[in-house]
Amino acid sequence: MSTTGEFRIPPRQRILDAADDLFRRVGIRGVGVEAIAEAAGTNKMTLYRHFESKDELIAEWVRGIVEKKEAELGEIVAAHPGDPEAQLADWSRRVAKKFAEAEERGSALGNALAELPERDHPARRVIDEHRRREHAWVLGTCRNAGFPEADLAADQFYMLLEGAKACVSCIGLKRVGEHLMKSVDALIAARKRQPARR
Q1: φ and ψ at 134, to 5 degrees?
Q2: Which of 24, 59, 129, 150 is 20 to 30 A from 109 via CA?
Q3: Measuring CA to CA, how many Å separate 138 from each of 31, 56, 104, 145?
Q4: CB-CB contact of 127 with 113 (8 Å)
Q5: What are the start-end ranges of the E strands in 118-198?
Q6: Distance set, CA 124 to CA 74, 138, 168, 173, 177 (Å)
């Protein structure tokens, strides 16, 4: 960073922005704190003043990604008030769009999971907690939609999401996204053929 305007951004945010760019381009394990500090226009001492360790920096970076993802769930509900089926369909389309956009780099959270196999890593805990909340959102939406077996339906939707992520390497992000949308639509259509249970 070299312009005066960029240095108006607080050091902590510059560090997170630099980490975001480097983690996505190079990988979490492939970049050290010195490179992050340099890219942020600061030094290791300043980095460690804001983050106890690289692991804490990774966890905070993941928190930022998770916050955006969870805010999007709120946007979906607001965009389709009182229409849980439309919320599920919108959710699948947003995920599919992200697959298409991530064709080059892949999913930031997916890549983080691959690089952080340790279950007790602070960033891994953030991701795991997010996934539980996301599943709970899907379950609540299925209940609101009146799926006869809401638990089963929520698991089916969530397995479609997780399965789509796992299939990216063999069939490509764009096709995975398209098939995810069609599969979600098929589950919703099947539900419409059944009597609702409220």
Answers
A1: -65, -45
A2: 150
A3: 35, 29, 28, 10
A4: yes
A5: none
A6: 23, 21, 21, 23, 25
Distance in angstroms (rounded) separating the CA atoms of residues 37 and 45: 9
Spatial distance between the Cα atoms of 176 and 169, rounded to a whole number of angstroms:
10
Continuous segment of H or E residues that includes residue 163: helix 150-171
pLDDT for the residue numbered 169: 66
* Mean pLDDT over each residue of the chain, to the nearest integer: 88
DSSP 3-state assignment of 16? helix
Is the pTM value of this prediction over 0.85?
Answer: no
pLDDT tens digit string along 69-117? Answer: 999 999 999 999 999 999 999 999 998 888 776 655 667 888 888 898 8
Nearest to residue 67, comparing CAs of 102, 25, 114, 109? 109
The position carrying tokens 């951004």 is 9
Hunting for tokens 């010195």 — which residue is that? 34
**Residue among 107, 115, 124, 121 at smallest CA distance from 162:** 107
Would you tell me how many other CB atoms lie within 10 Å of the CB of residue 178? Answer: 15
Angle between helix 150-171 and helix 173-192 axes, rounded to 10 deg: 160
pLDDT of residue 1: 46
Cα–Cα distance measured from residue 40 to residue 97, given in angstroms and rounded to the nearest whole number: 30
What is the pLDDT at residue 190?
A: 87
pLDDT of 158 strictly over 70: yes
Residue 17's nearest CA partner among 38, 40, 41 is 40
